[in-house]
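Sat 14:20. Reprocessing the chain from the morning session after the first attempt stalled halfway. Input below, unchanged.
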Amino acid sequence: TQKVLVANRGEIAVRILKSMKKLGLRSVAIYTQADATAPHVILADEAVALLPYTNGTRTTDANAYLDIDAIVSICQEHEVTLVHPGYGFLSENATFARRLAEKNITLLGPGAQTIEDMGLKHRARTYAVEAGVPVVPGSDGLLTSVEDAERIAESLGYPVMLKATAGGGGIGLSICRDVEDLRKNMETTQQRAKVMFHDGGVFLEKYIHSSRHIEVQIFGDGSAHVIHMGERECSVQRRHQKLIEEAPSPYLVSRPDLRSKICGSAVNLGRAINYKSAGTVEFLVDDDTGAYYFLEMNTRLQVEHGVTEMLYSVDLVSLMLQQGLHERFSGGQSGVPAELLDQRLFETPPGHHVIELRVYAESPSQNFMPCPGILQRVSFPKADDTIRIDTWVSTGTTITSLYDPLLAKLIYKERSRPGVIQGLMDCIRNDVVIQGPQNNIPFLNQILNDKSFRAGRVTSEWIDRGNVQYIPSALTVISPGIETTVQALPVRDTGLGIPPSGPMDTFAFQIGNLLAGNTRTCEGLELVMPPGVEISSPLAFVAQFHVQAIVAVTGSGRVFVDDEEKPMWSRLSIRAGGKLRVISHESGGLRCYLAIFGGFPDIPEYLGSKSTSMGMGGYQGRPLRVGDVLTISPSAASEQLSLPASLVPEYPKRWTLYALPGPHDDTEFITEQGLERFYAYQWKVSSASNRMGIRLEVDRSDSSDDVLQWARQNGGEGGSHPSNILDNGYARGCVNLNGDTPVILTVEGPSMGGYLCISTVASSDQWKFGQLQPGNTVQMHRITYQDAMRLRSHSERWLDAVEGLVSGETPMIFDPRVVFPEMMAPLDTKLHVSAPTAHKPRVVFRQAGDSAILVEYGDMTLDLTIRARIHALEAGLRSQAILGIKEIAPCIRSTMIQFDHTQVSQADMLSALLNAERSSPDKLEDIEFCGRKITFPIVLDDRWTKETLRRYMQSARAEAAYLPSNIDYLAANNGIEGGSEETLKLLVSSPWLVLGVGFYLACPFLVPIDPRARLVAQKMNPSRTHTPRGAVGIAGLVAAIYPVESPGGYQLFGRTLPTWDAWGKGPDFDAHKPWLLEAFDQVVFEPISETRHEELEQAFDSGRYEFKIEPTVFSMKDHLDFISSVEKDVSEFKTRQKAAVIQEEAREAELLKLWQNTKTSSQDSAQGENHSLSSETSYSVSAILAGSVSKLNVAIGDIVGRSDQPIVVLEAMKTEIAITAGESNVGKRVSGFGHNVSVGKEVQAGDRLVYLEEV
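Finished this time. Tokens:
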């Protein structure tokens, strides 16, 4: 049995494997970490990593595919008999060929000596001359000195070309136009050749000023039988590398005699060296005279081999495989049968034309710079007799900077060359979609449309001489500012913890779009612009527009076009080549918005939105970076149009947020005095605020008692803090009580969790979130639902007024101010309470803003009969087909109904919920829920969790009840006598029921069906900054499987596969449903080894893993019977558990207090040391915004070396912001630090961070 190893990657590896499968040959792929999930790894029968794990981490090496020792070793270990090298890498490496031959492994290509002879270009020239093939006039061999080169160049006449004898692919060439060029380039070319090709030999050739690149495909059987398979013209090149190839050559079509000579010369050379397998002989053809010259021979398969295959309906890869098989079967005495190499089949071109386009991830406007990144959307037409797509990419593929950025080859066949050109243009316009980092498709399209190319008059110097004036319809980011993201409306309403995203300030965003001529919802840029960002600051946003554009900048900031300040809240025209700069305004506000006419057409939607969020959507799922190129639509100039001041919103320092009470604005949780105090208080916006949430702090100067006054001691089964509850849904804009800290959950906030929510900001007032600066104050003004509807109507009239102005209508008289009575609305969070009956628990319907209702059942306890009632309620609600329901988010003992209040009122939604509840059955014994039983492989007490905890102990907290082992803590906290071993057995002893899916990215909340396996745990305090994806942990009574790598606080006990795949790969996921679990699914954990987990994780990432999924039914009758049968065991277990929890809580309280005291003491000590060393001088560096000190990059006595030197790094809005020295401080010495400046301390905008003095 023959087995073939493919010593390559990318599209050529995929191409080779397809032919192998047709021949029924077993295949082996090799890969690095960067390629672990690539298609060639999936397609092969076996796949072997080139690089082993080192200290638990797989390493990546750009040179791994060149590791001869490793590849030969793999061949031996896996009993490989043949190797296909593809192109590039080791395909023309004579040493590799010899090593394989020594091990009796057949290389699919010529022998080592032939590879070496043709690889050294000066030697190949000699063979060509001996075979009677014309060569470019030049040196007879390698150059020995500069004087030798000067003498030969003088005889040839300038210009000449220096060429590395071992070079290839256009690399190692230097054009010399005079003797000075020759002297300058000689040593450089030799040195570069030695570094790149391990051979510094160079030779000289006459430079043909206007030439075509024409090559001939040959194939030999190793027994002097060599044929040609026609020519390919590859004259469209950049930097001597091909972009477009075609056959037949448009130059030779009208010159059949010349074609015959060139093809004959290629065959003669092949016969002279007794060539075997596929090869290509390349020629330069003088465009003026038709003289042709041997250029080089490629002893491998060419990138453009598909052109020949398409034109002649031949499979070159298959022929190479058959050649190798015949060599092995005959002991090297024979090759491919003569009937397969019939010259008559290729003597004249058939009546078709074929053109290939190479699609690269590169930026033609930036000198074809490679553009690594994620391909966010990929779509190709289906292959047929007309079109062929050779590719390896799909939606979600990451293009690494380690390897060649070739994405695909589009090969098109038609009866005429004009037909092919038009077909390709139609194809790339209508059928090919590659969205993500920049690619060269627009550039290729411009070439196809160029009259010189259409006429077939292109030479190989055409592009490099500037004949294609390519200007991208795009902008380039010169400076991205602090954080700039693509956002759009409407928000992403997928639910399930997938953040809605969108602009924080929807008002400024929509107005900007209207001014720019867009719809209100068109995608634009959101810029974080805190005070202190000046025109010369590296934190300014700067973009260059390559085409004329119409823009508008709204929000808080100042805008400059070509260094001239322009009015904000205006329609502006930017010339082609113009620069736009945005800096901060010293008044209020935090964000501004850049709307561009036409938006960003090449940014794809992700789950229904173009907004950026948590690694998804937007441009590359991240904030913009320097050099990013975003496609825009060119537009004609337009007159400036400015919004009147009366329609521009105000951004104060002291804000009022109009909020509806609820869902937990209730004396059940907080005292009446505490509730009134909450609303009366002027909360301070923390620097730790961001798009996930606005953290509110008590003013440090406020000496009053705690603002929040709790009405209970703890959260019962929800947790040890009175803010804890059993997990429930969160409404957008709710004020979440995270311990004693209020956090307003915003556009990236979680959808559910285990904290109370005291109040919810009205939907039409949430635009203010985007303009809340750290240090601003916020007061909640309690309003009614009716007030919220009035606020909505007011906001709509405001936007209508702007729209009327933009459309040329007479602007309506409109007062943008809206003021509610000073007296707040009454505390009334309960919309309805259904009293308990003999068969049904109490049900509370709580107001959760103007667009959600929270329905709570029974007491704050975990009871699966309660969860079953919630399931029944949802079924009853869905049966009514209510228009406007966005999401139903069930959890432990509650469900959150999110609705569109423009489509259904709160009263109507409440009525529908009451109808659903009243129609639900009194008794649940006969209820059954259909679901799925899904087996999850799990590594218990895994090394990834141990590493996470080790990092936590080093960076966050060294001692806690849950350290050093979460599992030991779980055993102690639940009174399990068998310790960690018994604990782990218990955790996998019962199926787990999914009670809710949400929080972030469809994270599942699970509990064991068997109550004897329900362990309890408190959250880690502080939370971890890192949790591996697939980690499984417990907090309260609930477990979660982390869908992605993220912060977290659950107590971890193992690692499984993720429940989320961002691109929907794999049989259990879908592009429109990238999550796996649903409510009432059952999860069964199956312990495996760490090694097995690594294998399964790789299969998961490549889309090959298929979960074991079985249909199942959850019967309430069976469950209740089971509960009854184990009642005594459960009672005893809970008794032990309760006692253990009390003991562990007390232990943790002591350790937490000790840690807090130690932390405070060390910070005070550090601060005291800093302050004592401070020397207040007139020179200083100040904070441009409020934040916490993350890093001090200088010490006293240091000299500032440059203006952009980072002096201090602040963390604000979950972003690290470098504070630089500035031009005026260059050369000065650090003399001290400002008051309260040390790592971890908070500073305010304007605070002096570092003092300096003259040297």
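Residues 1127-1173 form the longest helix (47 residues).
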